[in-house]
Model the fold of this input.
Amino acid sequence: INAEYMGHSECLFFFVFRVFYFKVMFLRFVAIATSVLSASLFARAQTPSELLEMIVSVNETVSVLRDDLIQTQDALEMSSSKVLQLESALNLLWIVIGATYVIFMQAGFATLEAGLARSRNAANVMAQNFAIFAIGFVAFWFFGFAWAFGGFAGPSFGMNEAVGKNAVGSGEAVFLWTGGYALSGDAASPAAMGFFLYMVAFMDTTATIPTGSMAERWKWWAFVSWGLYCGAWYYPMFAAWTWGGGWLSQLGNSANLAHGFVDFAGSGVVHLTGGIAALWGAFVLGPRRGKYSENGEAVHFAPHSIPLVCLGVFILLFGWFGFNAASTLSVTDTQFAVVAANTAISAAFAACFAVFYIPFRTNGETLVDICAVMNACLNGLVSITGPCAFVAPWAAAVIGVVGAFLCLEAAPLIERRLKIDDPCGAISVHFVGGIWGVISLGLFADGSYGANWNSTVTELVGQAGVTGLFYHGELGGKQLSAQLLGLVVCLVWMTIWSYGFFEIQDRVFRRMGSFYGIRVDPEVEPGGVDASEMKLAAYVHDTLHPSDSYLRDLAQGSAESGATNQRHLAYQTQSPSVGGDGQNVYVSEPGYSYTDPSLSYQKPTGMPENAAHGLQYKESAPFQPQYQVGDQIGSPVVV
Done:
């Protein structure tokens, strides 16, 4: 028995077995020696009575040896059972620890997206990233888990039987499962509940991706309904076809396409599905007010907190090790070390490539764009998530570099050509990275891991691991075909369900009396959704932050800097609400609309109607008095 052909837990079992084996051999030696001794005694017996005494003595010795052997066998069976129980417990603990890592990634998404947003929307962005965990969790608990994983079994961590059965389809063509609703019945076991906790964390990642692309203009109740929809149906549907053992995972057995559709930790199942929803959600919602000038040029809205962005990326990088490595679902499967290392390699190479590529692409005009570098790093993480267990370290580096390149090229294309406003770059990270991750597995998988993946048993596959095109022509070509088929299915099918949902939701909201559907009223956008939706400010004593570039958003065009006069006023008046229409700036009490022209001051002399680029403002004189609602504000100086 060699560790090369079995897991460490099996080696432990055979070590215990050998200990008892040698004990049994010793007892057999004692028995043989006793028999030889008895034979010699028989030869020396002088009378029948002496022979009888010898026979009785030998019989007693054999009985003792037999009892000892039985006890040894019982102990061996008990020890092997305890070894297996210990293995299952350790694997289950590994899954639960991984789940906590992935759940903590919500904090990363929250800080990243809040930092990339403007300060008057930060509270809303934070609230959405927190609320999506609870909203999606409840929907997945009631319905999603049963539909996605009702037919899943994981003997390695003690989930020996599925909690449900097939609901739509059968055999190698199952489209939906059923059983274990609200973690009832067999789903209430420790193993099933631990697995549920891990899978609900993945679902929440999918659900939170659109909060980045739809930030700063998404109505709260429209967002809430998305969370319920994603947890109950949108994510579980594609998960059932792949990780749940559905028809895409069985393409190897049904269509002889290698190991079927393979996605180790979710480039497609999690990130691409979330990226598709982010794309169509932003499309239906439309761009933020002032994002595009009259001539169609995209206007840059500066992030309000780079430290928050950096912190968010660090948290996501940390959580990604649980996201990927724990997807082995077994701590005794030491491939988790390969997964973790490949994850870090891809992220590092992606970020490093962006550091050097950005100055080259901008002809030296931009020395470093830290937000773009961090998004490139995230794309490297998304790209390696699917193939991380199946590729060599050099391939992980290549995957990260290519992912970063695609992300950096896709972001301006999405913003300037497609005119889709994505405040956080979620589409270029998750949508583009998810596509590349699915494809790269079919190219770079080296065949060293994943034998019988997806329970594939065919003559073509044999005992080979998951293999890509660059390592085996026939087997790799069919694996790439399975990946491409799964990719097309995901793009088409999930587009139908995401675009359809947002479009129908928008029309329903309009029927219910909301003129702008699922979007907040553009008239309140300049004041921020913190005021209109949350009725609070992220920064109580700094409602109007300099980085907001305030007058830029009030007008159709843009002025790149903030308005420090208004910021000072916000301090003096205990953070009043401030708004405007491009002509005037109004001040009113918190929660009031900005409609009273008596609260206005005229824009500075010489400022064009669309607040042209390049105008900057500075405070002309310190404001000493406590300003009241209705007071006229002095004009700032045009520099």
Q: What stands out?
A: Residues 1-7, 542-639 have pLDDT under 50 and may be disordered. The longest strand covers residues 165-170. The chain is about 60% helix and 5% strand.
